[in-house]
Request: fold
Amino acid sequence: MTTHYLVLSALLFSIGAIGVLIRRNAIVVFMCVELMLNAANLALVAFARMHGNLDGQIIAFFVMVVAAAEVVVGLAIIVTIFRTRRSASVDDVNLLKY
Amino acid sequence: MGEQITFWVLAVVSVAAALGLVFNRKAVYSAIMLAVVMLSLAALYAVQDAPFLAVVQIIVYTGAVLMLFLFVLMLVGVDSSDSLVETIRGQRFLAAVVGLGFAVLLILGIGNVLVVGEPSLTAATQEAGGNVPALARLIFQRHVFAFEVTSALLITAALGAMVLAHRERTTPRPTQKDLARARFLGPQPTPLPGPGTYARHNAVDMPALLPDGSVSLLSVNPTLARHEVEGDTPATTPEAREAAVLLVAAEDREEPAAEAGEETRTAGEAEARAEADAEAPAAAARPEEETK
Reply:
């Protein structure tokens, strides 16, 4: 049964990665990153049960804390960029390209 | 057995919702799909002997993080859907191929994990007397330094968000005098007309009628003008807004006409009739026509 959880987490992680690669809206890209973090958490919880100790759950807990902080700062950055460039598309932020 | 049923139902739901998250063109739908994924993951945690993490997942992710996402979506604009223009040619296709290959590799690699015996956490949690006390013992004893560092991280994140989202006022705040002067110098010194209600509707996208029977475009807020019916996109040009407002007025006139079996009258006809009435000397005939 643990393998099932790991495969599910791998699937969700890959879907999140595909979303990061193909989407243009910065907020949706951010949501896909959150999906990847959640998939990693699922794998950690599954591993914790597989090995019979709670370290995996502790790591998942810290991942959640860091993800919450990351979301706050990331969304603030997106809002700031939207204010100056009037766009939330990741294609429009290309000033460093040239 | 119960765990298997839960797993398969939630696995299907979460994978479908994750696909919906990636392939929905509207960002708000993506956020709702993300909520579905997070809730089903919370249920999966609960099934896997992690009740504390399940609760934290619901409170932190679906409660706080997702609401933050929705707030920012409202700030940035709900209708900021993706552009379909590819800036790098073939990037979408290649990204999909790479993603699928990554998925296959990951699943093949992770599928080879050896599972020895029946997985169980009872041995780890029994000594402390439950999942939450056991986790608390680990967090506040062995990982206490990491826990303290976490608080510094959270404070830094809150400060960073405030600094990033703060906007300095570069021009002085306009006083009431400035506002009044701007209003009387502008095109409309009076308040804008309110929306029409026709005694049947209380929707604010219903335009008001002028005394000559034509539609007042000023009475509908431009951002509230009915979205185009087919394209489902907000009317951005003034012409599109005008068309949307006229469409609402026409729909409203068609409703009672269809009920009473009368001829349908569109907004265009109403305008033509209003013009004809204005030109005709006997304008008093209009109220009779309206009551009929």
